[in-house]
Amino acid sequence: MGSVLPGSVREFRELARARLGEFPHSEVSDAGGVRRAAVLLCVVADEDGAPAVIVIKRAYRGRNAGQWGSPGGRLDEGETAEQAVLRELREELGLVATPADLLGRLDDFPASSGFVITPFVAALPEGAEPKPSPDEVHSVHMVRLDRLAADDVPHWVAPHEAVRQPELRAEAASVPEHRGLLQMRLAPNMTIHAPTGALLWQFRAVVLLGLPHTDARVAHFTQPDWTQH
After folding, report:
1. What family is this protein classified in (predicted)?
2. Which residues pair with 192 in a beta bridge?
3. pLDDT, position 138
4. Are 186 and 148 spatial neighbours (Cβ–Cβ below 8 Å)?
5. Rg of the chain's alpha carbons, rounded to an integer?
6. Mean pLDDT per 10-residue section of the chain, whose length is 229 residues
7. DSSP 3-state assignment of 3?
8. Buried b (16+ CB within 10 A) or exposed e, 77-97
């Protein structure tokens, strides 16, 4: 691994602010009545004090029922993406963040659901503890940054091998990135596809690994059929 990983939320905050400040994120224009959503890749200290990004499994009701995701949702009328992501964090997880906690943003992601997702990155002070809303969140998971950065997390498989958790089929041999489907295999029962998987992949590439921006684009990543609903 060519990058030294942050050992604390404070170190992560400094690293993320610097790397995101140099990252030329791409934006999708509002032309054509685009529907917009915003999500937050939110880093907190886990129970051992290690920096970890929050991943949620959505409640088994409504839109995206039971899917893996990041805190966030659609923009209300008249709301900016920044305002929306802070509101959604509070509503879904009971966590209060301010604009100063936002460290930067990644590329807009055109989801197959018809929404353009704007991802932000944040770090919250030590002691921040999620209190999930049962109406919106089934479970909350802390993914340590060293796990997210591990070499065995990203896998590329043939699109027909996209299956829901926890079952996984045999891996396709050497599927080229531009033709394959990404699986972020974070734990035995935690395999995440695009769009959330793509955002985690870009967060990993840009912030944790410090890859050149030309090697870290994700808008073209394939999405499974079930993410359209």
Report:
1. Belongs to the Nudix hydrolase family.
2. 184
3. 96
4. yes
5. 16
6. 83 98 94 89 96 95 84 96 98 96 97 93 92 96 98 87 48 49 94 96 98 94 74
7. coil
8. eeeebeebbbbbbeebbebeb
**Beta sheet of 190-192, edge-to-edge order:** 154-157, 181-187, 190-192
- Tokens encoding 181: 């489907």
Which residue, among 84, 30, 70, has the nearest Cα to 203 in the 3D structure?
Answer: 70
DSSP string, 77-120: TT--HHHHHHHHHHHHH-----GGGEEEE---EE-TTSEEEEEE
Instruction: Provide, rounded to the nearest whole percent, the portion of the chain with pLDDT above 90.
Output: 75
Query: Can you tell me the distance from the alpha carbon of 56 to that of 107, in angstroms, rounded to the nearest whole number?
Result: 21
pTM confidence score: 0.90
CA atoms within 13 A on the CB side of 188: 0
Distances (CA, A) of 112 to 37, 90, 103, 195: 13, 26, 27, 8
The first and second tokens of residue 92, run together, are 């879904």
d(CA 53, CA 192): 14
Superfamily of domain 9-219: Nucleoside Triphosphate Pyrophosphohydrolase (3.90.79.10)
Q: Do residues 194 and 132 make contact, with C-beta atoms less than 8 angstroms apart? A: no
Domain chopping of the chain, boundaries: 9-219
Dist. CA 228–CA 178, nearest whole Å: 20
